[in-house]
Each structure stands twice: as C-alpha cells, then as structure tokens.
# Entry
Amino acid sequence: MVPPLLTALGYRHRFASPQATADLVAARRLRPRAYGPPRLLPRGVDIEVDEEGGWPLYEVRASAGPGQPRIVYLHGGSWINQISPLHWQLILRLAADTGSRVLVPIYPLAPRGTAASVVPQVADLLRRLAATHGAGHVSVVGDSAGGQIALSAALLLRDLGVALAHTVLISPALDLSLRNPAIDVLEAQEKWLVRPGLHAAADLWRDGLRWEDPIVSPLFGQMAGLGPLTVFAGTRDITHPDCELLVSKARAAGVHTEFHQATGMVHVYPLLPIPEGRAARRTMARILGEQH
# Structure
C-alpha cells in the first residue's frame, strides 16, 4: 500500500523537474521547516541540545551509564529538506533499544550547506568522539542524502587511520550523477524520487565539485580500511543498483559488509511504520548494539 500512498501525497512531483526542485528550495528558504524532536519520548530517554560549529547538535540519551557507545545520525531529505518526524522516531528507538547516545547534527541545507562544508565537519565530530571514547564505540548512521554524508565522512576518517565500529546506510545516495543505467527501469516505477529534480538538488550540494569526488559520491572512494558496513535498500528504490555496486566493491576490498535487501520495498523503508520497516529497525538495533 505504500506506493499508492506516495503517489497520493505527490512526492514524485517535487522532483519531476529542476524547476519543481528550485521552487521547493525557495519555499524552504522562505519558510524553514521545524527541526526539533517530538515532546513525547520513550521511557528512559532524554534529549539535550548544544552547538557544533554553529549547528544545533542534539544528543538523545538512553538511561545506560556514561560508558555507553555513541551513534551519529545524519538525516536524509535530498540535501534540501529538514529532518522529519520519521527520522526522530527512528533515532529515539535506536537510543532506547541500544542504550546508546545518539548525536543528531542539524547540518545546513543546500545551497547554504554543501558537501565541501558539511562532510568534513561531520568527519571531525566523529574523529573527536573516536578519540574520546574509542573508535570501537562510535558508529555513524545515515539515510538517503544522510547516507551519502555518513559514508563520505567515514572515508575521510579512514584516510586518518580511524575505522568506526559500524557504518549503517539506509537507501544511501552513492553516485550523485545518477548515471547507473539500471536506474532507468526502477525510475519508471518510482513513486518518490526521480532524476530531473534530484539531480538539481545534488548539483546544489556538490557546488562545483566533480561528481566523482568521494566527498560528493562516496561510491568512487576506495573502501579498504573501513570498519564494518551495513546497507539497507528496497528493490523498488532507485538507490538499489548503486547499493549493489557498493556492497560488491566493499566486500572485494575486505570490508565486513551486510546487505539487507527488501523485495518490493521503496526508498528508506526502514523509517516507515510498516512490518518490513519494524524488522529492519530491529536488525539495525542488533547491529549497533554490538558496540557494547
């Protein structure tokens, strides 16, 4: 029932053309969306907010002791949309189910935020957490556009000799040029993301950098030296073909990689209130809970 619902909500129209995406960016700049967490929290979970280099940085804290692991969550939204209630619900569940502290940076959106300005700052946050708590107690999670930021940041850390406990990617954007010919068939069925507008949003985000630069398109990075990698993708998702390439490339480089493919599922299905989403969230909590 999810694809018809997405059709009814008109998500595809937001990316149907570069002009539609430009209009959405202008509307978001004129009337920014709220980004704060919900008031109702699971039992034993608290939230605080600080600043990280001028960004709001939320910390979602479970009731476990001070030695608990850290997870940095990067939200999706095609680099132009703010964090949503679905993101917050996943973040709250991860904190409650893993006993972790989940840090949520509210990074600036394109065109003010770009790959060159956001990814290194995320990598520096992860580096400092790893230096304080040990890299084996720090993970990064990202969905869609946030998955691109997460993997690009993990690659920057790898270049510094830091391998995180886990990198968990949910329907990540991996090659922002969207050139993979296998996308053609999926795009015809896609009820959410289509290339004309999505490409325009990605163009704002890369801000003149090459499409093949790993800080923009992490699929072009070298994977050797990364910590364990987990990828979730539905087979009706236009990110799925590049996820297959990433998994193959990471395994060939000796990276321990789990690939959770959900037949018939749409983009970022682990965020959705459906049985398949709940199963994926349980799997995610199990993987991230291994940091303890």
In short: Residues 115-133 form the longest helix (19 residues). The chain has one domain: 2-8+47-289. The longest strand covers residues 46-52. The radius of gyration is 18 Å.
